[in-house]
Amino acid sequence: MKPESTLTFDAVSDAVKKLAHWLPVTDEMLQDVSAMAGYINARLIRGLRITEDDQLLNGSGSGANIQGVLNRSGLAAAQPRGSDSNADAVLKQIAAITTATNIPPTGIVMNPANWLSIQLAKDLEGQYFGDGPFSRPQRPTLWGLPVAITTAISSGTALVGAFQTASQVFHFGGLRVEASNSHSDFFTKNLVAIRAEQREALCVYVPAAFGTVTGLVQRQSRRGKWSGGVPAAVRGNPVTAAVFTRQAVFHARENDERSNDRGALSSAVGTLDRAKGRELRTVGPARALVRRSSDDLRPARTLQPSARVNSLPCSLMN
């Protein structure tokens, strides 16, 4: 016997809608063919893509609007950030969707303000987890998935989904560009309205393969205060005490946002020093302690910052 898969389908209709964007130009610009082509490519097509961006995410489905992903029924339960970092909360939603549907997500949609907090994430020495401000531009990724950065999604919310396997965008005909001076008083002002439009439909085959992450923050603090001593079980063992101190320093920095890093570290080193009854020569200076702590806690995948914000959610579905 060979393994068999059984697929169950429900009949669902998604209407084809027309997306459009227009802008005014002067008669003089129309006389300069090269300038006109550059203007259309830079402004008109970009405007249409931003309109498509918003529709694929937030469209209501009524009138001329596409029914966007966020307005579909049957989505995965929202994942609140809670006390997690933005990146950790996104990973939890990735795992939840994969577990529930057996369909791994293929992309993430995030507001620029929330993506900024991930780009600025640093270790205990102030070093970026990513490549920092002087690296070459790279496409934004998080947990190995491409990130589409757009203001079409609200700040504080991210969308995780299987865009390539559980959804599809259908385009009907090509992109149409038309011009007319009959709009309003354009004829008397020597202006021409140029319109770009495109007919398309969005199909979401498995709504449960999409889910939001809520409560994301724009800037996260890693400051903390040392508030505990070394347990008796580890006293007298310099190596064990050093490991405990590194973990406790990191834990304190994660959960208390009001005190100073240097004070917390000095207190931690002093506590370790008292537990051992001698100077911290065995495990090295405080700087080396923090460096090892940051290396131990560095995630397996580094966050790659991008110098440009130019990805659209529609690109995740293509």
Could you explain the architecture of this structure?
The structure is a single chain. This protein has 318 residues and is α+β, with helices and mostly antiparallel strands. The protein has two domains: 203 residues, hypothetical protein PF0899 domain (hypothetical protein PF0899 fold), CATH 3.30.2320.10; 66 residues. The protein contains nine helices and nine strands. Helix 6 crosses helix 8. The radius of gyration is 27 Å and the shape is globular. The chain starts with 16 loop residues before the first strand and ends with a helix.
Index terms:
6-stranded mixed sheet, about 325 residues, hypothetical protein PF0899 fold, 2 domains, 9 strands, alpha+beta, about 35% helix, 9 helices, single chain
Record the SSE blueprint.
Blueprint: E1 17-26, H1 27-31, H2 33-58, E2 79-80, H3 86-101, E3 107-110, H4 112-119, E4 141-142, E5 145-149, E6 157-161, H5 163-166, E7 167-180, E8 191-204, E9 210-214, H6 238-255, H7 261-276, H8 286-297, H9 313-317
Parallel strand pairs: 2-9, 3-5
Antiparallel strand pairs: 1-8, 3-6, 4-5, 6-9, 7-8
